[in-house]
Write a structure and sequence with these properties.
Elements (H helix, E strand, L loop, with lengths): L14 H31 L4 H29 L1 H21 L3 H29 L5 H26 L5 H12 L1 H6 L15 H4 L4 H27 L4 H28 L2 H22 L5 H26 L2 H33 L3 H28 L1
Length: 391
């Protein structure tokens, strides 16, 4: 009997929904990758100071925090598919409003709305990916998903170099790509998240169900926000040129692109929790070696591995979320992931900047190392208590 593309295969994977969800999230990542440098460079060309640019950029994580509270309820009322289609169209329109209102103060509410809209799109897409990638291959599928995000994010940023930053063209390209996202979203079956006729689960009610998993995502986001915001500055403080220091971010991203599928494979073959702890340990070792390697060529492979391990925490965390939850719980869980990421990114950028001011350049990797070691210590205490209880 011929299998319908909408039916799960022997491994429990619904390929139609999975491919459609991955295609949609690639579109979102492309648009985000384009907008981050595009908006910052425009504000810089207006003569806006770095501090004010940073405040404007922070509006997106604030929007992500707000979205975490709204996504489960909106998804329950309107349905995940209809909500995602609306948000894709609304985000496309939003992109066209930036050049229409080229004002710093107008861009503050626009960035806030962008954070809310895009967080909704990501949370729903992640719920679809996890809900349709079941069985022994979930870690690898999530690895493909994570790789796709990193690669298309980089492509979006490259478009800015081709179009320039002025005029409507770069914004129109981003909007057109988002409008195109409606097509793959429309191919997702209505029951992709498995939430029909099931009670609403709020993001706040989900928090006690997986506190350590959410803590891990928050720590990952602190790493992400700190590295993206201060790694290049750390390089400049140690004698790198601006162009060379910028390449450290490229090396960090390559770790995300090339290693997430192998990390997902390891998580599938062993244990997701132990794989996550392994990522924490490897990233901690890399951070500890940064002060020794920053003035040498060893910094390049070190940043590559740090990026792979740091983002691997999110990859494995998503896979574990899919193992443990389904339906409305899964949408609430991906919403909580978005909220924890927004919170962690804000905290990470703040503490890294403060640590560099107080302790000098090495305060940047030092404070991240302290956060990672603290999380590992919490996990060690948890395992110790669990071992004593079972004994």
């Amino acid at each position: 009997m011929t299998q319908s593309p909408e039916s799960p295969d022997a491994d429990g994977i619904n390929w139609r929904n999975l491919i459609a969800a991955c295609a949609a999230v690639c579109v979102f990542a492309f648009s985000l990758g384009e907008m981050f440098p595009l908006l910052s460079l425009n504000m810089e060309s207006w003569g806006v100071g770095e501090g004010m640019i940073g405040l404007n950029t922070a509006m997106a994580p604030v929007g992500i925090l707000i979205a975490g509270l709204l996504i489960p309820r909106l998804s329950h009322i309107f349905g995940p598919k209809r909500l995602a289609i609306f948000m894709a169209g609304a985000t496309g329109i939003l992109f066209l409003l930036y050049p229409t209102f080229p004002s710093l103060w107008a861009w503050f509410p626009l960035r806030l709305l962008q954070g809310i809209f895009v967080a909704t799109l990501f949370a729903l897409s992640e719920a679809w990916v996890l809900g349709n990638a079941k069985g022994a291959y979930r870690g690898r599928v999530v690895g493909i998903y994570a790789t796709s995000i990193s690669a298309t994010f980089g492509v979006g940023a490259a478009v800015v170099g081709w179009t320039g930053i002025h005029g409507y063209l770069p914004f129109v390209i981003g909007a057109a790509v988002l409008f195109a996202a409606i097509l793959p979203i429309s191919l997702v079956s209505d029951d992709a998240s498995g939430s029909e006729d099931r009670p609403h689960v709020s993001m706040l009610s989900f928090l006690p169900k997986a506190p350590l998993l959410l803590m891990a995502i928050c720590v990952h986001a602190m790493f992400d926000g700190g590295m993206l915001g201060f790694l290049a500055i750390y390089g400049v403080r140690h004698g790198m040129s601006d162009s060379t220091a910028a390449l450290t971010i490229t090396a960090l991203s390559l770790g995300n692109v090339f290693f997430q599928i192998p990390i997902g494979w390891i998580a599938d073959r062993t244990s997701k929790r132990s794989t996550m702890i392994g990522c924490f340990l490897i990233a901690s070792v890399c951070l500890a070696l940064f002060p020794l390697a920053i003035a040498t060529n060893w910094i390049w492979p070190l940043v590559l591995v740090a990026g792979a391990a740091g983002f691997g925490i999110y990859t494995v965390g998503l896979a574990e979320l899919g193992d443990r939850f389904s339906g409305p719980d899964l949408i609430a869980g991906t919403s909580a992931f978005s909220t924890m990421w927004g919170l962690g990114a804000l905290i990470g950028a703040a503490i890294c900047g403060k640590a560099m001011d107080v302790f000098g350049p090495h305060g940047f990797p030092g404070v991240l190392l302290a956060v990672f070691v603290s999380f590992i210590a919490v996990q060690a205490v948890r395992f110790y208590r669990a071992g004593r209880a079972s004994a």
